[in-house]
Amino acid sequence: MGTRSRTEFPVITKTAKIIKKMRPFDWPPEAACRDVRECKYKPLIHSTGFFRAKAKALIGMAQALVNDYGGRVPADLDALTTLPGVGRKTANVVLGHALGVPGLPVDRHVLRVSNRIGLARSDKPEVVEQQLCAALPASRWTLASDTLILHGRRICKPRPLCDSCSVQDDCDYFRTVIVRERRAADRKNARAPKRIRTARR
Ligand code: SF4
Questions:
Q1: CATH number for domain 100-190, candidates 1.20.210.10, 3.40.190.10, 3.40.50.300, 1.10.1670.10
Q2: What is the pLDDT of residues 14-59, one digit of tens each?
Q3: Cα(126) to centroid(ligand 1), Å
């Protein structure tokens, strides 16, 4: 499921509940299709937003898994991205977290944080994925993505908390934007005429 709801927590919680309920590893493919067709999971995904589109994607994905892959989830990025509703980011999450195959999902946090620090230079997720994968051994890809996502959620938010950040000294954005802004503000304050306080009578 995509994470377009206001916070990602409900999506993660719902996804965990669905997976627990589905028990995908002992779940016959025909039952998978039937359960999804009958929309048994709709109440579970309702609160994540766009649930009709997500239900449609789940149905298409389950049917494609049954028809094209014998009910097994393929451990291959290109094959995964042919499934309805599965983009490159989701495919990499499945590879890295469910199948033990190196994958580096690039979401909005990875995109923002890696560009700010200077680990990557692009506004295109696919290009950032290539740059990060080229810079890291495959065994570190999934953990690197998780780390950047957490850092983006907690510290390097759209309005970054640079004073609480442990990579400040190695961050391009901090050196080139934040430090300059602070120096400019200091100069402006130094030029401003000082107010002279007068005692009230
Ligand atoms: S120093 Fe600021 S911009 Fe750089 S990674 Fe940390 S929070 Fe983000």
A1: 1.10.1670.10
A2: 555 665 565 454 455 566 556 555 566 666 666 666 777 777 788 8
A3: 22
Predicted structure pTM score: 0.77
Atom of ligand 1 nearest to the CA of 160: 7
Q: At residue 147, what is the residue type? A: T
Q: What angle do CA 149, 163, 144 make, to 5 degrees?
A: 20
Helix/strand/coil for 120: coil
Tell me the C-alpha distance between 130 and 153, whole Å. 22
Query: CA angle 88-19-61, nearest 5°?
Result: 45
Q: How far apart are CA 121 and CA 1, in angstroms?
A: 27
Q: Whose CA is nearest to atom 1 of ligand 1?
A: 168
Domain ranges of the chain: 1-72, 100-190
Residue 155 Cα: closest atom of ligand 1: 7
Annotated catalytic residues are 89, 107
Per-residue b or e along 51-72, where b marks 16 or more CB atoms closer than 10 Å to that residue's CB: beebbebbbebbbbbbeebebe
